[in-house]
Amino acid sequence: MVKLEFEHRQAGHCESGVTRNLLNYHNFSISEPMAFGIGAGLFFSYLPFLKMQHAPTTSFRVWPGEVFDRATRELGVKTAIHKFRNPKDSMDKLNEVLEKGFPVGLQVGTYHLPFFPPEYRMHYNMHNMIAYGHDNGTYFISDTLMENLVEITYEDLIRVRFAKGAFAPQGRMYYPTFVPKNIDIKPAIIKGIRKTAYNMTGIPFPLIGAKGIRYLSGRMRKWEKKLGPEKASYYLGQVLRMEEEVGTAGAGFRFIYGAFLDEASTVLNQPWLKDISVEMGENANKWREFSYLGSRNCKKRGKPDQSYDFLADMLLDVADREEKIFRQLAKIK
Amino acid sequence: MGNSTDDLKDPSPGDNELIYTYNRELFYHFDKEKGFTQEVHYQNPDNQVIIKQSWDAAEQRLDEVKQLVIIGKLSPIAYYMEKILMEVPMLAAYMEISKWRVKRHLKRKVFNKLKPEILAKYAAIFEIKVEALKNPDFLK
Predict the structure, then answer these.
(1) What is the rounded distance in angstroms from the CA atom of residue A326 to the CA atom of residue A310?
(2) Does B89 contact A165 at a Cβ distance shorter than 8 Å?
(3) Which residue numbers of B have CB closer than 8 Å to A's CBs?
(4) How high is the ipTM of this complex?
């Protein structure tokens, strides 16, 4: 039996929330937007050839695991990350680490998570949560999506840790082992911003970053003709789901990122970042407007409320905004 | 919750009703005066519409597959796969066999000749009895 003194705090995004909560446990105070920004979590990609839930994959964030890896690396925090073939090994290791007094981050699939909101129980393998103790086959869990602390049985935990399919977690567990006393977060912030600026404007590939948003916009114009109104609205719905629903805190992480820039401007004492954070906030509101108008097409299914051309124009607008924002951010010193 | 408060922008009924109220989540907002703020709330009604659409689409797909199983074109595996929201690549990963084999098993003719071990493995993933896999209720 072990139950660590763990403070449960909700977060907008599971992985940056987990990163923050784990670091907070080790007495390093950092906000969720900070963890997200240093981890360079913001992204955009549209991959029409990769189908998820019968629709093209849209992503507003980087690869799972990267936020934690990057944020801790840049901050000089030492971590341990394990993956497993054998479920029993993975549980033994988890027990061992918990007994040593470390709360552990776990990557899990959401379909079999018993405490998860029923409406989200789809096969999504990139969810993160923290185990902070166990007792006689019951594990104590802090999930940043949930209002309260939760529990899960040994068998169910194996099940979700070894969910299969795209991005299978393979029992991935991770935790900080050593957090230095005096961390200077300034260089980490700058590096994080540069990385995101590069991801959003510098990658010479049409499906990624601001270019990716434009590409999606172009595709969207053709959906209704090509797929029919029903399927077009379904495709749109999947884009909006990735933007608003799967733990993005709204507008595909754009709000969190704006809050990060706001905080960064104070920490770095660079007032121009504050202006950019406002631009980012406005950009996020544009995304939200897009999803608000788009959701009406999803509601009416057959009869679109807004033409897809109109929605595509909105996307072009946010693409321009983001391009401008990140071109400026790339120059940070 | 009534629909008496007229929403001038969109008078369609049920506009502000929440469908899912299991858990409240944390959201961020931005306002020029207040800056960035956080709030714990349910998903807003617009987003809930999108979630619902996704589930409705899944239900519709399941129904279509069911019809194909009834006319004998697809095997019950196709039905149960759809029922637990899986697709061929994921089911193949759970079965630890190749995708094309799973695809073959979706054909009724191939399914009829499947070995009991394989059927048992499918049934375990679908969390049903082998009997139910061979003879789903809706075929009786």
Answers:
(1) 25
(2) yes
(3) 10, 12, 19-20, 22-32, 35-36, 38, 40, 43, 46-51, 53-55, 57, 61, 84-87, 89-90, 93-94
(4) 0.85
For chain A, domains (ranges, CATH) are: 2-30+78-178 (3.90.70), 210-329 (no CATH)
Residue B15 main-chain phi, psi, to 5 deg = -70, -35
> What percentage of chain B exceeds 90 in pLDDT?
49
Residue A274 has pLDDT above 60, yes or no: yes
Write down the residue that tokens 């949560």 correspond to.
Answer: A129
Domain CATH number, residue B130 = 1.10.260.40
Summarised one tens digit per residue, pLDDT across range A219-246 is 999 988 888 888 888 888 888 888 877 6
Q: Is residue B26 part of a domain?
A: no
DSSP, collapsed to helix, strand or coil, labels residue A56 as strand
pTM value? Answer: 0.87
- The boundaries of the domain holding residue B111 are 55-139
Is B105 domain-assigned?
Answer: yes
Q: At what angle do helices A254-268 and A185-197 cross, to 10 degrees?
A: 140
* Residue to substitute from B7, B19, B26, B41, interface A, most A β-carbons within 10 A: B26
